[in-house]
Amino acid sequence: MTAxxxxxxxxxxxxxxxxVIEAYGVHKSFGDNVVLDGIDLxxxxxxxxxxxxxxxxxxxxxxxxxxxxxxxxxxxILLEGEEITRKGAKVAAIRQRIGIVFQQFxxxxxxxxxDNVTLAARRVRKMPRRQAESRALDLLARVGLQEKAxxxxxxxxxxxxxxxxxxxxxxxxxxxxxxxxxxxxxxxELVGEVLVVMRDLATTGITMVVVTHEMQFAREVGDRLIFMxxxxxxxxxxxxDVLDGPKxxxxxxxxxxxxxxxxxxxxxxxxxxxxxx
Length: 277
Ligand SMILES: Nc1ncnc2c1ncn2[C@@H]1O[C@H](COP(=O)(O)OP(=O)(O)O)[C@@H](O)[C@H]1O
Ligand SMILES: [Mg+2]
Fold this sequence. Notes:
Elements: H1 9-14, E1 21-30, E2 33-43, E3 48-52, H2 59-66, E4 74-79, E5 82-83, H3 91-96, E6 98-101, H4 113-124, H5 129-142, H6 158-170, E7 176-180, H7 188-202, E8 207-211, H8 215-221, E9 224-229, E10 232-237, H9 239-244, H10 249-263
Parallel strand pairs: 3-8, 3-9, 6-7, 7-8
Antiparallel strand pairs: 1-2, 1-4, 4-5, 9-10
Helix pairs in contact: 4-5, 4-6, 5-6, 6-7
Bound molecules: adenosine-5'-diphosphate and magnesium ion.
């Protein structure tokens, strides 16, 4: 992990040190389908962890378990040293410490950008309107959207809407941000503006877990990368090391396939199992 400037050193110092997220032997099935098959993980304070892996490997489920949106079958997940998967954990309070951004922006269409950003703080935290709006404007400025604060979602591009969603997730001052393929639904020319916002966010010292297909982002912004397949962490390391010199066969195959897709469709075909080869 590299040292990073902190947005507010005093607040940061008051927080517990050590890993922000820990997972020990996490198992999760849907019926017969084993989706998380013994996940052990630690995400250090300020670290940006990038998660890659094929569709269906359990990446989204992992994020949803960390955000206590899915119960796990066995194992433990800790947030800042506190076990969040124990019975009786205060889920609402835990979720306030975790910001999550999904592929679908899920903005309220009838609310202006700024009202989408302030809604939870005003409702849940009972933050006064003026204070909430002032903070929301700061956050919208940070994602490059101060001018768009009074626009409704339909007046914004997909990239702009996703940046509003990021500002919304930051509103509750989360201690960790989870990103689940947040650029996958965007037109290619809008991907960059969202990645740049995430890159800048990573330098503020906030802890981030980023599920992505954007290998260049993984390489440049990730402190560490994990490759998941069939519910397991198959390989992990410094992003450039894993991307340039994968050790495991499954990682090699996945990266080769991603590269192939990026360069040419010519040699690809659909197998009988419906997979691309
Ligand atoms: N709510 C659910 N109910 C049943 N099966 C699910 C549910 N969510 C995910 N799954 C299954 O779990 C597996 C992993 O899904 P997911 O975590 O979304 O993978 P990824 O994000 O890596 O594509 C898939 O086989 C998927 O069909
Ligand atoms: Mg997913």
